[in-house]
Amino acid sequence: MTDQYDVVIIGAGPGGYNAATRAGQLGLKVAMIEKRETGKLGGTCLNVGCIPSKALLHASELYEAASEDFANLGIVTNGVSLDLPKMLSQKEDAVEGLTKGVEYLMNKNKVDVVRGAGEIIAPGKVKVTAADGSTQEIATRNIVIATGSEVTPLPGVDIDEDRVVSSTGALDLTQVPEHLVVVGGGVIGLELGSVWRRLGAKVTVVEFLDKILPTMDGEVSKQFQRILKKQGVEFRLKSKVTGVDTSGNGAKVTVEPADGGAAETIDADVVLVAIGRRPHTAGLGLENVGVETDKRGFILTDNFRTNAPGIWAIGDCVHGPMLAHKAEDDGLACIELIAGMPGHVNYDAVPNVVYTYPEVASVGKTEEELKAAGVAYKVGKFPFSANSRAKTNHETDGFVKMLAEEGTDRLLGCHIIGVGAGELIAEAVSVLEFGGSSEDIARTCHAHPTRSEAVRQAAMGVEGWTMQA
């Protein structure tokens, strides 16, 4: 038994390592447990999620631009070819650099990193089982569960990470498939589908619901689907995959209407199962201390506190958006509460971004949510086709949509489709966090020519005085 810690964190993803960093900054004695076989910190996000996928999105976007767009800009190349092993290698370089950066942060903030699988065996006691089977027990005043999430399986379909892959396998395909079938029209499926379409694959997205990105604003979803269709992505909406046969070459995908009806078979080289993620809470010993979960495995919390004294939970394993930056904020607030400080996260001001081309970004309420809640609101919209920078750069797809409360003008939501939307959304996030209004944005000077002017023009449009369209 080691000396007692103030905090032991199970999981080294964005929630865990940011919580550990903050604990170290506040002078707490902290240990962080990570069971990943490679020993690399950073969780799913840095190792097989956010970071490697963005590396491939960026590289594939440049490849497509060089192949198809350069000539229209007066840039003549002598042919462009794909070196897939090199593209995958540079992705791993990004992962390696950032995971080492997390190691540096842990050392800097005096965080003890313990490799192995953590299990809560009693209040204030965590057993760690290393890869070689050896164990140790750690005593602590507080335990923070930050174990994240895992891929949700598709019933009746076995993921072999060869012909039927999860998001992890889709990051390491050894060749470009002729036909990639993506099961699920959410963020992960659309991002990874975009990567392989740019590199030459035919991509078909099968979605159970009647629209893609089902949690986003309906107008945004419709426009984004039109843009992706124009790029060559095919969609089968209101459809479900009921089986995948890999007994021969490739994969035969059985697809049925969601409401029932005749099945059809789609021939594919690779099938990507991307129907969502589920909390990773099995094997943590929650039953040993009576920590309550719901039927889906999410840990039930009240301001990060579980029902068991001294045990906290953050990130993807609790309710809320399953996003790395949400987990980071959870981690900071949780540790500050443990340290006796105020700790709070405003989940209405957590942005969501789809890193396709163009990007999709949103924060706050959608029109559908406001209508369902009976909230009176006004809308301001501005198309990138009227924005000088977007027009100059031939990047005019999309628009900015601003939602504000009628009467008070308080900003309620912002939704953007366009190049750089993930960066542009930050302004709306800040104003929403401060309880500001659409006029606060409309009266703020924005540099010209920039895409950010479209955000200002949409804000002007809430009160009907858009200047540039």
Could you explain the architecture of this structure?
The protein is of the alpha/beta class and 469 residues long. It folds into 3 domains: 5-151 and 278-345, FAD/NAD(P)-binding domain, CATH 3.50.50; 164-275, FAD/NAD(P)-binding domain; 349-462, FAD/NAD-linked reductase, C-terminal dimerisation domain (Enolase-like, domain 1). 33% of the residues lie in helices and 25% in strands. α3 (50-69) packs antiparallel against α4. The termini are far apart.
Output the CATH topology of the largest domain. Answer: FAD/NAD(P)-binding domain
Number of strands: 22
In terms of DSSP E residues, the strand content is 15-25%
Helix count from the secondary structure assignment: 14
Contiguous low-pLDDT stretches (5 residues minimum) are none
Classify the helix fraction into a percent range: 25-40%
**End-to-end distance:** 69 Å
Architecture blueprint of SSEs:
Elements (H helix, E strand, L loop, with lengths): L4 E6 L3 H12 L4 E5 L8 H6 L1 H20 L14 H25 L3 E4 L1 E6 L2 E5 L5 E11 L3 E3 L12 E2 L1 H4 L8 E5 L3 H12 L3 E5 L11 H14 L2 E3 L2 E7 L5 E7 L6 E5 L1 E4 L3 E3 L6 H4 L21 E3 L10 H15 L13 E3 L4 E6 L2 H7 L3 E7 L4 H5 L6 E7 L5 E8 L2 H13 L4 H5 L9 H11 L7
Parallel strand pairs: 1-2, 1-6, 2-3, 6-17, 8-15, 9-10, 9-15, 10-11
Antiparallel strand pairs: 4-5, 5-6, 7-16, 12-13, 13-14, 18-19, 19-22, 20-21, 21-22
Helix pairs in contact: 1-9, 3-4, 3-6
Compact description:
With 469 residues, the chain is of the alpha/beta class. The protein has 14 helices and 22 strands.
